[in-house]
Amino acid sequence: MDTNAPEPPSRPLWQTIRRRASVVDVLLLSVVPVLLLAVYALPTATREAFVFRYASPTVRTAAASPFVHFQRTHLLFNVAGYALIVGTTYMLSVASDRRREFLIVFASLLVVSPPLLSYLNLAVVRRGVAFGFSGVVMVYYGTLPLALAAYAQSRLDLGDVTSGAPLLFFSGLVLVTVQTLRAVLDNPVTVAVDGAPASVSWVLAATLAELLVLLVLVVALYALGVADGDRSVRRRFREAIDRPGYAELAAVALILFLAVPLATFPSDPVSGTRVFNLYVHVVGYALGFIASYLYFHLQRTPNPVA
Fold first, then answer.
1. DSSP helix/strand/coil, 86
2. CB 113 within 8 A of CB 284
3. 13-159+233-251+265-299 has which CATH code?
4. What's the CA gap between 281 and 267, in Å, rounded?
5. Is 220 helix (H, G, I), strand (E, B) or coil?
6. What confidence tier does 1 reach under pLDDT thresholds 50, 70, 90?
């Protein structure tokens, strides 16, 4: 938690962010796009050497492959997603006096998540290769629920982080499951059984449908808990709207949160010669939320007295 005193509610949002933000932070966040562009400028043969191959994985390719792109549209898609998600999360964190916490989580995930996601790909037995930054983008997307919930509590006096963040996370999982279910129904999935292809689409569809029901129940329970814990939510919401810029930032962040699964979990995961790795997108989203949520609680756990 930063040591800066909380801003008075009447201070405009842009003044709060300008006062707390740092040029060094912007330079740090810019490292990723610069690195992605630098790797893209390398010769094709060099980039191919950095691709993570499931049949022969190495630590070097596990760490480097997320930064590799071969198509300009793929690169621009990931850079734009990174800029929107990380930029919004940074503004939410700065405005809610969580700048230091954001930077620690951001840097830690940037170091850990690329090789970790690559090796987690090996959990699904298959042939092929993996590359691209979308999995890491989804890791940062996983930090957005906590940032939005903390912002809503500290700047808008709405909800509580310990219930609001899981509510948003599981709501995101509902959207992800719906999109994945659509993809399975629209694109038959087959596996080889004794050398012959066998359809498993309905098995996957039934599993996803059951998961969807469970997630809806979990979201409903969290939503009821939030509603029961705050009887004056309507009054507080009206007061939040009167704060210049604060409600607008929350609305933009919420729209972004709801829109990302539509772009990263398309109904047809095959786009030309590129296939969306839905598995690593889900894993990245969960990894980002778990990491940020655990660090949030560890920061607020009182140290034992010696």
1. helix
2. yes
3. 1.20.1540
4. 14
5. helix
6. very low
